[in-house]
Specification:
The complex is a heterodimer.
Chain A (H helix, E strand, L loop, with lengths): L5 H10 L1 H17 L9 H22 L8 E3 L2 E3 L3 H21 L4 H18 L7 H18 L5 H36 L6 H20 L5 H10 L2 H29 L8 H22 L3 H25 L4 H4 L2 H22 L10 H4 L1 H15 L5 H12 L3 H24 L6 H5 L7 H19 L46
Antiparallel strand pairs in A: 1-2
Helix pairs in contact in A: 2-3, 2-5, 3-4, 3-5, 4-5, 4-10, 4-14, 4-20, 5-6, 5-10, 6-7, 6-10, 7-8, 7-9, 8-10, 8-12, 9-10, 9-12, 10-12, 10-14, 11-12, 11-18, 12-14, 12-17, 12-18, 14-16, 14-20, 16-18, 16-20
Chain B lengths: L3 H17 L2 H19 L8 H17 L7 H7 L2 H10 L1 H15 L11 H20 L3 H23 L4 H30 L1
Helix pairs in contact in B: 1-2, 1-6, 1-7, 1-8, 2-3, 2-8, 3-9, 6-7, 7-8, 8-9
The chains are: A mainly alpha, B mainly alpha.
Chain lengths: 511, 200
């Protein structure tokens, strides 16, 4: 019997830790609910404890992977090596979602925990695969699966339509990515034969396809409708994962690809893509800000805050196309996901306590439930990135990278609108309590949970605002996410067709 | 080119039926398309075609789960799959049929782009499936039909990719097989939920 290499085994377990834990939850949660382990009426409590423990374990394993701890696995010849962005998202996401799951509670607490575990596992695995189509496929199909899982099967037409929109958006993203991959892989060939399209035109085509993927998957204007419906109808854990966290991971991959594309082609490949991204980004922020101010449904308001965040991702992608070495642009996705998670935490808490969704019905909420007031204040601080530091510097960098003052002014005004909409909700919380708020039978939160919420909210706000260095060990910018394809020429196809000039073996580059 | 071109034509025909046919014919066409496209995408290079078997198992399994009742009614199947009904279906949707033909021609004729250094029949089938699947994917209001169109369009994208870059790596093959199956299962479930809520 061959000896087991313990070091290798531990390295493998660390590398695929979040995925293993998500799979364990498939057995552990139903077991925890089983009557053999306690009375049936407490089965939700047991499931909650199990998923919280698993979420923390997932975060710890992600934290340990890489850096000083060797962690790599080989699955089907594919090396799995946790990347810095993946580790960061899972290490920060696991405790964040644990908090959201606990505050949400309820009958589906175990399912929500499992959704969080699988979403984080998908992010971790996708960002740990070195290149190819697998990372993107994991994120896109993971998003479809999780949206259906989150929607449940209770025959709610609005939820079902939100899932349908997500399915359609995801199905469109993959052909676009394949197009980008093909164009990207053709660049080396075009560089060796003048008869082909130029590297610049192929690079621009790939950048256009990638920009379309980024815009549609993150929900940038005019693709915002899906995002708003997701936040309005789906449970918060699912909304945050499908609308914010998985698109954030995808945007890190796309940004890495855009950066390497722009760096690999000698001429500027921005062309019409940069203005399109700049305009879409600025309009998304302004539209999100104005809509968040005008709407009364708290789910929709958080959805529009997410649209504003997506606008920043588009601006960051444009900044990377202009300057592939712009590290500031890569700093924005993770804080954006964290600050939106704070609003999600607030939303789920308020929905659970008052069972109303209109801001006009929420007068005095902060006076009755100050702990949620603290969460919202933390969210506003995270969104503003106060006190000014590297995150706000990155936002200013991204705003000015386009070199267009109108874009910068529109985006800045939009950001003010986003902040004003959150401040409006906070101020409503200090007005005279409305009838639904006065009459609501509040769920008493255990002291330990209140402390955890306060500590968690402040910590998340700190990470999002840049108080805590969110790069590994605080040293330098984040390494890029895995590329979509290796920047080498494609391998010769098994049965190559005749070349356009009939000489055979077309595309064999002339040395 | 060998069997490639006939297979590409069959794949385009099946894809057209999958997005235009009545429910029974569409599901049968989709199941057959998965096989034909799989044979084109995973070339027989002497290795055990695990990726193909995985794709077939996932998609046929999902199709079996979501199949409408009475699908295997022999008389109905004979009627729906008769050449006359197929010809009628194609003539009722001339735009889709013309798109399929245009896609095949566009894919088969080299246009002096670097990506054309690829397997012509696979490329032709890929482009045909893309132009057949994308319009209903973007515009259809019928959830189940959109799910089938999504599978057709994604299969086309994968064929186009395979024609240039070769077969998928194992992890991507697993992810794609699971994802395509998920699309079929979820679109069927969503359609069921919308119908249920409308009935209530």
């Amino acid at each position: 019997m061959p000896a087991i290499d313990t070091t290798h085994l531990i390295a493998t377990l660390r590398a695929i830790g979040p995925t293993l834990i998500a799979l364990i939850s498939l057995v552990a949660v139903p077991l925890a609910r089983h009557p053999r382990f306690g009375v049936a009426t407490r089965s939700n409590d047991r499931a909650e404890r199990v998923v919280i423990s698993l979420l923390f374990a997932s975060g710890i394993l992600a934290f340990l992977a890489g850096s000083d701890y060797r962690s790599s696995a080989l699955i089907g010849g594919i090396p799995i090596d946790p990347s810095e962005p993946g580790r960061l998202l899972v290490a920060l996401g696991a405790p964040t979602f644990a908090l959201i799951v606990v505050v949400g509670g309820g009958r589906r607490v175990g399912t929500m925990g499992q959704i969080a575990l699988f979403g984080l596992a998908a992010i971790d695995l996708a960002l740990a695969v070195p290149d190819g189509l697998a990372p993107v496929a994991i994120l896109i199909f993971g998003s479809i699966g999780l949206s259906a899982f989150a929607a449940g099967s209770r025959g709610d037409a609005a939820r079902a339509r939100a899932v349908f929109r997500d399915l359609r958006a995801a199905a469109i993203a993959l052909p676009l990515l394949v197009t980008a991959e093909l164009l990207r892989s053709a660049i080396p060939l075009s560089a060796t034969d003048a008869n082909y399209a130029t590297p610049t035109s192929l690079g621009a085509g790939a950048a256009l396809a990638l920009a379309a993927v980024l815009m549609s998957s993150t929900g940038v204007f005019p693709f915002h409708h899906r995002l708003v419906r997701i936040f309005e109808t789906l449970p918060i854990v699912g909304s945050l994962l499908i609308g914010v966290w998985l698109p954030t991971a995808l945007s890190l991959i796309v940004m890495g690809e855009i950066s390497s594309l722009a760096a690999g082609v000698p001429e500027q490949i921005g062309g019409a893509v940069v203005p399109a991204l700049l305009i879409a980004g600025a309009v998304a922020i302004a539209f999100g800000g104005a809509s968040a101010l005008l709407h009364d449904d708290i789910g929709e308001v958080v959805g529009f805050l997410a649209v504003g965040n997506a606008g920043w991702l588009a601006l960051a992608a444009a900044a990377l196309l202009i300057n592939p070495d712009n590290d500031a642009a890569r700093l924005l996705p993770v804080p954006g996901a964290l600050s939106l998670s704070l609003f999600g935490l607030w939303l789920i808490g308020i929905r659970k306590q008052y069972e109303v969704t209109a801001i006009s019905d929420l007068g005095g909420w902060a006076r009755r439930t100050p702990v949620y007031g603290v969460i919202l204040i933390a969210g506003i601080i995270a969104m503003l990135a106060l006190p000014p530091g590297e995150i706000i510097a990155a936002k200013i960098n991204v705003l000015t990278a386009g070199g267009n003052p109108i874009i910068a002014i529109v985006a800045a005004l939009g950001q003010l609108g986003l902040v004003a909409s959150a401040v409006r909700i906070l101020l409503v919380g200090f007005t005279v309590p409305s009838r639904p708020v006065r009459l609501a039978a509040l769920r008493k939160l255990p002291e330990v949970l209140v402390i955890a919420i306060l500590f968690g909210a402040i910590t998340i706000a700190g990470a999002a605002a840049g108080w805590l260095s969110i790069a590994s060990r605080g040293a330098g910018p984040l390494p890029s996410a895995p590329p979509l394809s290796s920047p080498t020429a494609p391998a010769p196809a098994p049965n190559e067709t005749a070349s356009p000039d009939g000489s055979g073996a077309a595309g064999s580059p002339t040395p | 080119m060998g069997q490639g071109l006939p297979l590409a034509i069959v794949a385009a025909l099946l894809a057209t039926l999958a997005v235009t046919g009545a429910r029974r014919a569409a599901w049968i066409a989709l199941a057959a398309l998965v096989l034909v496209a799989g044979v084109l995408e995973f070339p027989d290079d002497g290795h055990y075609p695990a990726g193909l078997l995985l794709r077939l198992a996932a998609l046929w399994g999902a199709t079996l789960i979501v199949l409408p009742t009475g699908l295997f009614d022999f008389a109905a199947l004979r009627r729906d799959l008769s050449p006359r009904v197929i010809a009628e279906t194609l003539s009722e949707h001339p735009v889709v049929a013309a798109s399929a033909l245009a896609g095949l021609l566009l894919g088969a004729v080299p246009l002096a782009l670097p990506i054309e250094t690829s397997v012509a029949p696979v490329r032709a089938a890929g482009i045909a499936l893309l132009v057949i699947g994308l319009p209903p994917l973007l515009t259809s209001g019928y959830v189940e039909a959109t799910g089938r169109a999504a599978v057709v369009a994604l299969t086309g994208a994968l064929l186009l990719r395979a024609s240039v870059l070769g077969a998928l790596d194992p992890l991507a093959a697993v992810a794609i097989a699971a994802g395509l199956a998920a699309i079929l299962l979820i679109s069927s479930s969503v359609a069921g939920q919308i119908t249920l809520s409308e009935e209530e």
